[in-house]
Please model this.
Amino acid sequence: MGQRFPVWASSASAGLAATALAAWSCWQRWQLLASSPFPLGVDGYFYPLQLRALLAHGQLAYPTSPLAFYLLAPFAAATDPITGAKLGAAVFGAAIALPTYGLGARLGGCRGAGLVAAVLATTSVGSTYLTLEFVKNGLGLTVALAALWLILRATDAPSPRRIGLAVAGCAAAWATHKMAAALVVVIAVPAVLAAARAPRAARPRRSVVALATCAVLAVAAGLCFPQRVLAPGDAALLGGLWSWTPRWTAPALALPTGALALGHDALLGLGLGLTAVIAAATRRLRSRRRHIPDAPGSSAIPDAPGSSAIPDAPASPATTHASPSPTATAGWSILVMAIAIGLPFLAVTDRQGLGFRLRVAAFVPAALAAAVVARELIGRYRHRDAVLTALAVGLAFVRQPSEPVGEIVTHPALVTAAQALAGHIPRDTTLIIPERHLVFLVAWYTGAPTALRPDGIAPERRMRLLPLHFIGAGSALDRALTAARAEPSLRAPLGVHPRHPNGLILVDEATWRWVLDRLPPGDRAHFAAWPTI
Model:
């Protein structure tokens, strides 16, 4: 009889495979980020600004969830704020492979399922998109999945050390990104409550006490620092989450321009979620027809035989009870999330909206749903680890990452224009800029205060900075700005763009009012309202 492959060796091999996947993905992401000497993304310059302020003054320039910037700070200190932000984005974006592997192994009942989930998450277009466009969001998802893995370990076998680590993970997710905090809440709360209903009485309730303590502290932090952490007021975002107009292009994420920005992460999650639900319902129906009681936790996702071979995985209890396990409950939450995000009724056209952010993050529930599907379909197969590992390797080679369509790239002419503003901005003057990307870019190169809207800023202490796509080439506003240059009673608008006289134009408030008065009524009302991008 041949000697069985040691469990520790199997664990080490899978861990090394997940680490190699993360390292390979980090290199691929860095190649994309290093393709431009300037920051990428609509908020590209936001991260260097924050890192520059943190390294120079020990505090952030803008109020936001702080932990992400403390994690990026060592990279910036070793290089510079722009390079450091890119390095950190590549490292922490690719590192999502590790917690996804841990969660996938628990949900799928074997290490092969964890590797499949890790490959799907790491090679997804959505994950790459976050690395390029929304660094803090991508970093937050990595932290959130690590927190969820710690929480499930604590609910399966509670101990002071495990509970302490789970609480620390929750705090880290809360301090990194609001979506990360919300993801932990949606998945962890039902799992912890399931642990509390288990017949193991006293020990699981430590988790409930820890959860209640975290909830009280989280609400208090949200009330005190609503701009920095998830707060009760953020629930208002749910009002704009859904659209009555179905967008059947939604699995590929439609932008306002009509272009398709992402791959089919949401469609994959929808298909995998429905497959898992159908498979679970079919298995349960067959079990009832044969008059065989369901296995513990099988009301959703059963604990597959052999799951105890995974370190820290829950072993099947000797007695049968109706309550699902914490891991099974977490699996249900993930399936519901994957299905909901894949539906065509999300409002996905606003880049700053909740629907857009959920659709971009669709790869997370999709990857974890794949582990659940693996448990449902081949959870009792003896060689499932080998089959799933081979599938993971194949997916890693097939799903080669590519640069997503729709990312914001900084044009060198725009950088030149922003640098040319130096010396033309009066002291204590705030630049009002209608585009979020330009707000941070101009602040980086000029050091001047910038704002997206004029609200709350005295007219004598503000100037307008207008890009050409806001003005419109040949428009009434374009003609009025040109005419203002010939009016001797005005401070002439200053064009700083090297390729167009009105490509990027600085206008003081008195001149702006003069320009507005010479526009047709419809244009005047439109620009007086100051539409922002």
